[in-house]
């Protein structure tokens, strides 16, 4: 080995003699240039790699967004479920739209199952962003309307479906509310029930519990009950006035609801985003929390059998 190195030295020395020092300098310069180019290319390669990683991440995010977008869950089973509590008790604990068929219902329909807060909640109304129009006629409220695909889509399940659903037994109503300050409150009512079409989908419910105050039964003050109690009220829409007011609550409040004279809760009202001014109190109102002139950020109305017990799966 040593001899070889010596030969190399000798060779190099003789090469310098042969090529001349200016040529050698040129070679060195070229080498430096090439090394510079290599570094530049390496830099490009690194940048490209980063770009690829970023694009892949973006694609992944889009992918999960799409998964969020479509929240319909097909169980593909032969079994029919009367509500989300049954689905939960079968071990399905993912939030989403499932097909249910209450015992008296002539057909299956999609309902959002909220598997949080103990699970088994069938959601029949949601407000989240004002993307759906809730100022609708009787037939729309009867059959249901809105977005039955997206996780946070707005919808009304339909009075007919709500009737079939709540007449299967004693159902607890839970209303989850959030405001634009990021606070959450809830109101819960025992024995929530919606009568059939022949009774204009009259609503009844029992004892209140919760943190948002009792706006549905006007329980916040005995003297307001005659106009603020929504229990025992028939459903009203702008084309079907069943309220206790000389005028037409649904028309003025731009919503379908169990109006009295007219309300201390109007969760199907206009989506205003917080404090608002209008001729009438037609925002998304829960009086006992934010009064009549504050429109809430989100609402979820859901039911669950009173005797619901989580099965250990
Ligand atoms: C519903 O609750 C009421 C009052 O607690 C009770 O009398 C009734 O038997 C219950 N109905 C069903 C179907 O469980
Ligand atoms: Ca009226």
Automatic annotation (TrEMBL):
SMART domains: FBG (SM00186)
InterPro entries named in the record: FIB_ANG-like, Fibrinogen-like_C, Fibrinogen_a/b/g_C_1, Fibrinogen_a/b/g_C_dom, Fibrinogen_CS
Name assigned to this protein: Fibrinogen-like protein 1
PANTHER family the UniProt entry points to: FIBRINOGEN ALPHA CHAIN, FIBRINOGEN LIKE 1A
Main function: Immune suppressive molecule that inhibits antigen-specific T-cell activation by acting as a major ligand of LAG3. Responsible for LAG3 T-cell inhibitory function. Binds LAG3 independently from MHC class II (MHC-II). Secreted by, and promotes growth of, hepatocytes.
Principal subcellular localisation of the protein: secreted
Keywords attached to this entry: Adaptive immunity, Coiled coil, Disulfide bond, Immunity, Secreted, Signal
Entry coiled-coil feature ranges: none
Annotated GO MF terms: extracellular matrix structural constituent; protein-macromolecule adaptor activity
NCBIfam families, A to Z: GGGWT_bact (NF040941)
Domain Fibrinogen C-terminal intervals: 75-307
Gene that encodes the chain: FGL1
Pfam family, one: Fibrinogen_C
Complexes and interactors: Homodimer. Interacts (via the Fibrinogen C-terminal domain) with LAG3 (via Ig-like domains 1 and 2).
GO biological process: adaptive immune response; blood coagulation, common pathway; fibrinolysis; hepatocyte proliferation; platelet aggregation; positive regulation of heterotypic cell-cell adhesion
Gene3D superfamilies attached to this UniProt entry: Gamma Fibrinogen, chain A, domain 1
Compartments, record wording: Secreted
GO cellular component: fibrinogen complex
Organism: Ficedula albicollis (Collared flycatcher)
Record's signal peptide: 1-20
PROSITE patterns recorded: FIBRINOGEN_C_1, FIBRINOGEN_C_2
């Amino acid at each position: 080995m040593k001899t070889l190195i010596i030969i190399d030295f000798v060779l190099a020395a003789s090469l310098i003699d042969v090529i001349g020092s200016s040529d050698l300098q040129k070679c060195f310069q070229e080498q430096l240039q090439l090394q510079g180019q290599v570094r530049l290319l390496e830099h490009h390669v690194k940048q490209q790699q980063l770009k690829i990683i970023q694009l892949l991440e973006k694609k992944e995010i889009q992918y999960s967004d799409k998964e969020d977008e479509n929240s319909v869950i097909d169980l593909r089973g032969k079994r029919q479920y009367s509500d989300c509590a049954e689905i939960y008790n079968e071990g399905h604990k993912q939030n989403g739209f499932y097909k249910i068929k209450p015992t008296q219902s002539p057909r299956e329909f999609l309902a959002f199952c909220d598997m949080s807060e103990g699970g088994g909640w069938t959601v029949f109304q949601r407000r989240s962003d004002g993307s759906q129009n809730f100022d609708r006629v009787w037939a729309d409220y009867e059959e249901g309307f809105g977005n039955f695909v997206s996780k946070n889509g707005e919808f009304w399940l339909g009075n007919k479906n709500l009737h079939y659903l709540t007449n299967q037994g004693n159902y607890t109503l839970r209303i989850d509310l959030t405001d634009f300050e990021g606070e959450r409150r809830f109101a819960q009512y025992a024995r929530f029930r919606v009568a059939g079409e022949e009774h204009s989908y009259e609503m009844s419910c029992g004892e209140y519990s919760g943190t948002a105050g009792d706006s549905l039964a006007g329980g916040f003050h005995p003297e307001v009950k005659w106009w603020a109690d929504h229990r025992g009220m028939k459903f009203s829409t702008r084309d079907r006035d069943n309220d206790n007011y000389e005028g037409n609550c649904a028309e003025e409040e731009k919503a379908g609801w169990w109006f009295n004279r007219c309300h201390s809760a109007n969760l199907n009202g206009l989506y205003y985003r917080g404090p608002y001014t209008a001729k009438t109190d037609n925002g998304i109102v829960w009086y006992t929390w934010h009064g009549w002139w504050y429109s809430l950020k989100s609402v979820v109305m859901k039911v669950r059998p009173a005797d619901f017990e989580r099965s250990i799966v």
